Amino acid sequence: LWRFGYSARLLKTNHFRTAASNTSFPAVWMLLAQYSGTIPARFVVVKKDKFFTMPETVPETDKTNVELYSPHPEVRGMTLLNRAAFKRTVVVPVLKVKKEVVNTLLKSLKHTVLQRPGLKRVVEDPEDEDGRLVILDPHKIPEFSLGESEQEVLKRLNVQPEVSKYNLELTYENFKSEEILRAVLPEGQEVTSGFSRVGHIAHLNLRDHQLPYRYLIGQVIIDKNPGITCVVNKTNIIDSTYRNFQMEVLAGESNLVTKVKENNIAYELDFSKVYWNPRLSTEHCRIVELLKPGDVLFDVFAGIGPFAIPAAKKKCRVFANDLNPESYSWLLHNCKLNKVDNKIKAFNMDGRDFLLGPVREELSKELPLLKEEQKTSFHIVMNLPALAIEFLDVFRHLLVGEPCSAAGLPTVHCYGFSKHDDPAKDIQERAEASLGTSLAGRCSTYLVRNVAPNKEMLCISFQIPADVLYKRPCP
């Protein structure tokens, strides 16, 4: 492996060690490939971004507790939240003990005692002021009868091995969000899709069968997720011009101006007017890690600055552009917020005009001055996956003159969606068609995330071939 130049730093990372420890050798090889970032030709690697989800199936640990922790069956079909209707009483086993042995007993019977967030495991004994009732898990105590190991523990602690019955009252507060929604929605239908958290906003993409319950779903999410004060549902596809979408406020305040933190950098935005996707934080970080201080970044579809601002903080020179006036305004705002407004030149232009104008002008000025020993790199990020590949034809003969050194040729990171069986091959072929040349052996393809069933988001990276970028003057 060391022959291929993989660094020791890779092998020291916790993520790699954890993954590799439970992985076969071929899979370890794939992990190395993911982290190297240097593999040529068509090669797909995967990283998953973190985002908030509501489970659609019962976790293994909860399957035995479905009956015990199901709300009152009369809530089925409820569309407006009535918290009082979720109240129910269940019978659970308890042990009567003196309060001075409670802590010891809890430690000794930790696998038998009720383990349920939000529920007390110990309550006062109404018949004995000095006594306590320790609630046991009814699924661990079949027929309210203790096993031999539990009886041995009680004998050592001088506790009577007699199990009593106790009426435990469960309320709306005691149920998890997925339990509430599973009890409300029609049986057999998925509870809800994952939701993204953007500051104080929870963003949902509800399915058609969930829409009648959308206001209830919104309120449950607010109740069960501290810090969320607004829940919205996307009501149409992303507008390809300004990359925003219509949304409906389901619950909470209608304030859609929010503040988020990504990779230790703060951003402010109006979620209803600009594009922001918390699932892309890993991808933003991946690209910025490729940059070195002194490099130049051209961000063609910059949004509010998730590539541009961390690059500027890394002491790169940044040219950032976005067609959406709202995105441009928030980009300027976030540059000032992060004290990099003097390091970023911002533009409010069409992406094609930005490439033909400021990008061409800067490259025409900078590339002829590059010397072999200089290590400045030029990167062009094109994160508009619905359309970016169609812009690649701009690079055909963008510059006039003799090519600079191969090392100085700009590197493009272009994003696209694919529904093809082989998405890496599809994205490469489409890029080649726009550029008018083959990229075989000269590009790498990175699988960013799964957007929808049979729809992937990918990033293809390549240095623009000299014969594409340059138009040589006539003799």
Protein architecture, described:
It is a single chain. A hairpin with a 2-residue loop joins strand 5 and strand 6 (201-204). The protein is elongated. It folds into 3 domains: 88-170, Alpha-Beta Plaits (2-Layer Sandwich), CATH 3.30.70; 177-255, GMP Synthetase, Chain A, domain 3, CATH 3.30.300.110; 274-471, Rossmann fold. The model is unreliable at 1-66 (pLDDT under 50). It has a 7-stranded mixed β-sheet, sandwiched between helices. It has 13 helices and 19 strands. With 475 residues, it is an alpha/beta fold. The longest helix has 16 residues, at 351-366. GO terms for molecular function: tRNA (guanine(37)-N1)-methyltransferase activity. It comes from Glareola pratincola (Collared pratincole). Keywords: Cytoplasm, Methyltransferase, Mitochondrion, Nucleus, S-adenosyl-L-methionine, Transferase, tRNA processing. InterPro entries: MeTrfase_TRM5/TYW2, SAM-dependent_MTases_sf, TRM5-TYW2-like_MTfase, TRM5/TYW2-like_N, tRNA_Gua_MeTrfase_euk. Belongs to the class I-like SAM-binding methyltransferase superfamily. TRM5/TYW2 family.
